[in-house]
């Protein structure tokens, strides 16, 4: 563009005064500030028109970035532009931009075109932009777009961000396809901060990889007429995905803010908060979260056909501590977690929860979550009987030493299963439940044995049977005789020596049958318990 050492702009560019100021600031790395000093008129999102004294052409900005003049002696070139109105299209597609770039409080007349370009660091702060087209963009450092308002979507498909991607307090409206942010295949080496983001359309992060944490604290994702507000299957976050509330500080530069722009922070008790809110479905299927997936204080507003889908996710900790969805479904089928931190008030009711194949190791309830409510939680997830959720709950309870609660869960499983059986099997099930609770309460068998033994002893004391062979029968003992009838395996040499008739014969038959029922039921229950252990 210029001869070596020549820092003047080509004469045919015919620079305006604003562009000449920007040109000189670029050469010495200083800020070109085109503010006029009136906050209302300097607001890039306001209604006031900006005059020619603030206008710079997009092609002049592109020329500085792609083939700019050399720096002043002892300085480093950088584009630091504040309060400018960038006319036409700023197009640096495919270019390699070495200078540091920071545009603050700027307005763009047309979309920002950055596909396949390479930056060191790019910061757009509090700018008004019609659209950001940045598929496959690469940065060595940060890409920042905090507090920007983008009218027709951001495309970051297959972008590679060297350090952090910041979208705090950004407002993004949908494009023609109904997407607000299209970032499929995005790679961020460190954090993706999108706190208090407002997204109106589908936020798509299919197959994205985040090297540290992804924070959507206090954000609002709204796509009520589309299928999903957040579509992020196969998302990988090396640490934690925060879909939680954000504390609202007194100023954007409070402690807890991330310099230099400020952000929300995790609220402490008593702090005024802004919830994470998702209006529309959410899909996180097959996601991998290295530390946790956190839904504390989250609110989901869904239609009946929309889902919060967590199919086959894997994470050491799932914190399901949000507000109960009034409509839609929560899907946990095939998910694998170690710790499930939850509240009874967070889960949807009957038909609103699916968790076939959901595996967890430890339950960590917050607040009041007794076993009765936990059983309702399982029942809500199984409108049709399925044994796996009951067995998973029982296994988790046994892991923490709550064996009696585990038996109650398995008993509840048998009762649910009984509802699916034909009449004969159902009758047999009621008998097992009434007598020994399917073997999960074996103490009942001893009680019934004692009762039947007492009844049998009294009856046969009053109506002793005659001996089978005179002179060969042992001394008559109604206690041992009734006990011998009740015990199906042990032989006390009593029942075979006497020949009951009439009513005594029926009484003996009842005792024998009752003994077999009690014994087999207890044995079946004991074998089930041994198999589980």
UniProtKB/TrEMBL annotation:
Keywords: Membrane, Transmembrane, Transmembrane helix. It comes from Streptomyces tubercidicus. The chain crosses the membrane at residues 506-530. This is Oxidoreductase. It comes from the Bacteria.
């Amino acid at each position: 563009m210029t001869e070596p050492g020549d820092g003047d702009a080509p004469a045919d560019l015919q620079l305006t005064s604003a562009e000449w100021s920007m040109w000189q600031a670029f050469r010495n790395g200083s800020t070109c500030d085109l503010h006029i000093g009136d906050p209302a008129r300097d607001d890039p999102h306001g209604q006031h028109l900006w005059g020619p004294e603030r206008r710079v052409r997009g092609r002049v900005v592109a020329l500085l970035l792609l083939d700019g003049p050399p720096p002043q002696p002892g300085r480093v070139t950088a584009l630091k532009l504040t309060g400018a109105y960038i006319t036409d299209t700023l197009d640096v597609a495919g270019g390699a931009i070495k200078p540091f770039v920071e545009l603050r409080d700027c307005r763009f007349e047309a979309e920002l075109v950055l596909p396949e370009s390479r930056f060191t660091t790019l910061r757009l702060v509090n700018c008004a932009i019609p659209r950001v087209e940045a598929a496959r963009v690469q940065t060595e450092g940060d890409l920042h777009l905090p507090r920007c308002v983008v009218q027709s979507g951001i495309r970051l498909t297959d972008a590679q961000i060297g350090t952090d991607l910041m979208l705090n307090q950004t407002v993004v409206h949908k494009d023609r396809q109904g997407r607000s942010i299209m970032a499929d295949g995005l790679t961020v080496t460190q954090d993706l901060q999108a706190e208090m983001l407002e997204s109106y359309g589908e936020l798509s992060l299919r197959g994205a990889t985040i090297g540290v944490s992804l924070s959507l604290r206090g954000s609002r994702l709204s796509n009520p007429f589309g299928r999903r507000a957040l579509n992020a299957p196969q998302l990988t976050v090396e640490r934690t995905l925060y879909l939680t509330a954000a504390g609202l500080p007194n100023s954007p530069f409070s402690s807890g803010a991330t310099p230099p722009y400020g952000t929300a922070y995790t609220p402490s008790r008593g702090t005024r908060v802004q919830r994470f809110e998702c209006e529309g479905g959410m899909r996180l299927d097959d996601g991998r979260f290295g530390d946790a997936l956190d839904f504390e204080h989250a609110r989901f507003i869904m239609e009946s056909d929309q889902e919060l889908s967590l199919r086959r996710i894997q994470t050491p900790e799932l914190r399901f501590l949000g507000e109960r969805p009034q409509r839609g479904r929560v899907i946990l089928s095939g998910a694998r977690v170690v710790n499930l931190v939850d509240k009874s008030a967070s889960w949807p009711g009957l038909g609103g929860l699916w968790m076939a194949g959901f595996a967890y190791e430890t339950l960590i309830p917050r607040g009041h979550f007794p076993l009765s409510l936990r059983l309702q939680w399982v029942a809500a997830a199984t409108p049709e009987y399925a044994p796996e959720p009951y067995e998973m709950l029982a296994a988790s309870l046994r892991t923490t030493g709550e064996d009696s609660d585990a038996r109650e869960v398995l008993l509840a499983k048998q009762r649910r299963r009984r509802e699916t059986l034909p009449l004969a099997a159902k009758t047999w099930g009621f008998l097992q439940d009434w007598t020994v609770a399917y073997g999960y309460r074996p103490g009942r068998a001893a009680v019934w044995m004692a009762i039947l033994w007492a009844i049998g002893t009294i009856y046969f004391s009053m109506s002793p049977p005659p001996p089978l062979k005179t002179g060969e029968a042992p001394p008559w003992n109604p206690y041992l005789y009734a006990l011998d009838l009740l015990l199906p395996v042990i032989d006390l040499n009593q029942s075979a020596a006497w020949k009951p008739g009439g009513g005594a014969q029926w009484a003996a038959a009842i005792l024998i049958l009752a003994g077999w029922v009690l014994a087999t039921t207890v044995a079946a229950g004991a074998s089930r318990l041994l198999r589980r252990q």
